[in-house]
Amino acid sequence: MLPSSLREKDGLARPGLYLRFKTRRYLVLAVIAFAVVTLFGRAFLAWFGTVPRVFRDAYPPPLPPPPAITSPLPPLYENYHHTELSLPQHHWDQRRPSKDEKFLFVAGHSRGCGWGNAMQELLLNAYMAYKAGRSLVFANYTWNDNGSPYSEYNGKKIPSLIPYSTIIQGPIVGAPFPYGDPTPLAVHRDYFDHVCPKKLTFIREDISEIIDFKNSAKEIIDGWHDKLADVDEPCVQTAPNSGQIFNFDVFGDPRAMIDIWPELSASPILTHFGWSPLVELAFDTNRDMFLPSLSIAPYLTSLPYTTNADRYAVIPGLMALHLRRGDFAGHCEHLAGYPAEYNAFSSFPDLPDPFVPPRGPDADENRAAFRAHCYPTLEQIVTRVRELRRTHAARGLRKLYIMTNADEGFLRELREALWRDQDWQMISSSRDLVLNWEQRHVAQAVDMLVGQRAQVFVGNGWSTLTSNVVMMRMANRIRPDSTRFW
Ligand SMILES: *[C@@H]1O[C@H](CO)[C@@H](O)[C@H](O)[C@H]1NC(C)=O
Question: What pTM did the predictor assign?
Fold first, then answer.
């Protein structure tokens, strides 16, 4: 042993060294003792499985297992539903309509289609009730009314029913009409059912028989107006099983809206249309992506409602692109087969990019030409943006916002390509929005609001999301040469 041999060598006891040796011995003993206790303890635990009760209190309580991470269920917007039910025009104490109440409910409204489709139909139904001088009966934006609160879409859970007031505000969801307008206020379907146990039902064919151009929105509305003019019965609905009054034949026909537009765009249905506080809040939260940098404009949600045109004025410097991807890869091929024309609300004669379906001798060339407008490639997008930035309406653009359902990979490449090609202060997309849980399921409306206000908007003529944006831009008299298509 090293210390003793040292001692022998010196012939002297070195107290310091000896002391150190002694301490070391205790240390070794302590380590051994610790190892023995631990080993026995483990063996004991392995044998009996658990710490005996007498010792247990000395141990900290075991931690519960971590919770399994599952995504929370979609919101059901109960508060919005309750607020709708408590509108002041609902007289729940009545068992039947009072003398001045007259309703119109379109029971065959669409189900299971995107918000873009549902919205244009809702606007026309609302206008039809307005023209007929009846209260519009509004229900929910309905994905599925089989009674289940949730449905599945693309493998994800979504709410089956969404109260309209989570998405929009204004007379369509029961707000007052502008001062002096005698139209009775819209009511909720639950109230309609409450005061109208019995309803007078009309079928679509009652009206389509008496009109010539079956897709003309004006003829349809005038037809219903005439039909309802001498109906005294307050509780009127369309047959639940006879489908939509305004269906895709109408919304897909480029001539369908032309003769109704002057009156529709001047009606409170559009002049007093608004996006819901929930949607506006999402706009406010993310506004650095849209408004000029360091903008001191007040937040939308802090302003009292005035009119559609006033509230959603053009944002200088912003270009918004609507890039419909995903299911449109297949849908565009399908549309190219007809070939389909642009949607009714994307076919205003004042717009600078009318679509003429390619009908050359070569079918493949026709399809390729069609695809350039419906599902443009990355290069085609970059070229089109470059071309449009040179136009007069595009002067002073600084920020670019991409409204899209494209996947992250494509978006990253596109952003880089756009960034390299032109000078931008910021490029962002729908995927960059910060949204709360309730906003996430109405995010399309946030995009619509941005597109509606952009200095220059570029859309897809077959998408209803685009056509609603175009409609709002036209209604608010935003210069038509700033509303473009791919
Ligand atoms: C609308 O949806 C709410 C849930 O948000 C539901 O309670 C209500 O019954 C629905 N009303 C109609 C008429 O579908």
Answer: 0.85
